[in-house]
Amino acid sequence: APNTRVVLICDMQNDILVSLHPGMREMVVSNVRRLLEASRATKHHVVFVGVCFRQGYPEVNMNNKLYRGIREAGVLLDGTIGAQFEDQLQPLAHEPVIVKKRVSAHYGTELPLLLKALHASEVILAGVSTSGVILSTVRW
What we know:
Blueprint: E1 4-10, H1 14-17, H2 22-41, E2 45-51, H3 65-73, E3 97-100, H4 111-117, E4 120-127, H5 130-139
């Protein structure tokens, strides 16, 4: 099986990006867009990862401070503009989208299966929260 580079675009969603200072948001989106365009141009596999919850947040344990805050703020709800990926960072029809319920892109998702099927030998991650989604996904 051939060795394959896979690029994960993580949590580049409106409800997450809105927390950034506008100048920082523009810089992050621009940098990730450049990576995305280069990855597509060189035919690397691109996978989008986002966090999203159902109405009523049944996946949220209220003892978890982070997720309790998400639920109380009413953000990252399935079907809302806030849960959508930023306009400049939209997946193409053939690019998989992994929906997660926790910080890690691996935990409770089909990402491990997808990476194995793609024969991933190298994974590049891009996202807003280095100490969150990036670190917890790399640690897996």
